[in-house]
């Protein structure tokens, strides 16, 4: 039995359905609501969405549907690993947002998602202690979400961002790099202890600033011994600018090339590229050998940028060598020179006519004020 109402709602069984026209277009469907007040609120929201966006709410995908469409559309145009990282992040951490229509996402729901991530209250089966959850990790989740919504705007699903969530600031920490006086010792350790292919990869990363993924897929076709340049292809940003080779790196590549003109520079035993993070172990071992702890492969790229800066290379040239689109990204790669900071401190101390205390000098004692008898008695 159906009961028709004047406001465009009709009850079919226990659920209300809507039916109305706007600007000559018919809109109809189920509200999935059994209470009249809820059904009316649903229709009011639907009216507002249609008038604001010219779009029926049922035409706006949920975040899950949008994510699937984005993955299908981007397949083949961006790296599969990036797509998989976003899909994994959504499955593990986005939680209830996945079943929300993208125009219904708001600041509160996105902030709650990030908060649940930091507190370990997400969809991971195994409990992960809060202390391992970093603020930067929460920012990455928001960044991924903005990438999906930005694509949805480009596709015309919605007109503008439904939320405005800022990235949280995180306390910066000092990140290691190899001092210039330890570079040769570092490379000697790698050459003595690591396989030959790993040695070549680490030299490409440290002397050309290549990412580990770029060194992993390096090919002889991109190496020009005549001009002594290398053109990194399959890069993160799609750049293909030739990089001049230092003499020591050129001599090393000529020694390991053996007349080859094609194929991978750094093949494994099967002639294929190594797996991900294939240099991490050897970078850590060589770093500890020269007294640099916490070193990982991407810090070799930062070492390359930092040492260029210390040698006086201007920031725009370093940006070009690292192939960054934004110079602010380049600034993040340049570390601080501890020796220069120490020298500046010593210079300031000399200017103040202050002298460091010798080991034989007794520490200066601050005389204690004698308290009046009455004051001491009150204590």
SS content category: alpha+beta
Number of helices: 15
Spans of at least 5 consecutive residues with low confidence: 1-5
Spatial strand order of the main sheet: 1-2-3-4
Strand percentage lies at 5-15%
Second rung of CATH, namely the architecture of the largest domain: Orthogonal Bundle
Fill in the CATH topology of the largest domain. hpI Integrase, Chain A
* CATH homologous superfamily designation of the largest domain: Intergrase catalytic core
Rg, Å, rounded: 31 Å
User: Could you give the distance between the termini?
Assistant: 88 Å
Q: Largest sheet, if any?
A: 4 strands, antiparallel
Query: Level of helix content?
Result: 40-55%
- How many domains in all? 3
How would you describe the shape?
elongated
Quick overview of this protein structure:
The protein has 379 residues and is of the alpha+beta class. It is 46% helix and 8% strand. The chain has three domains: 2-59; 63-154; 180-333, Intergrase catalytic core (hpI Integrase, Chain A, Orthogonal Bundle).
Explain how this protein is built.
With 379 residues, the chain is an alpha+beta fold. It folds into three domains: 2-59; 63-154; 180-333, Intergrase catalytic core (hpI Integrase, Chain A, Orthogonal Bundle). It has helices at 36-53, 63-74, 80-94, 107-119, 135-154, 183-193, 196-208, 212-216, 247-257, 280-289, 298-310, 315-322, 327-333, 338-351, 373-377; strands spanning 2-4, 9-12, 15-22, 25-33, 223-224, 229-230, 243-244. Strands 1-2-3-4 form a four-stranded antiparallel sheet, with helices on one face. Helix 7 (196-208) packs antiparallel against helix 9 (247-257). The protein is elongated, with a radius of gyration of 31 Å. Residues 1-5 have low confidence and may be disordered.
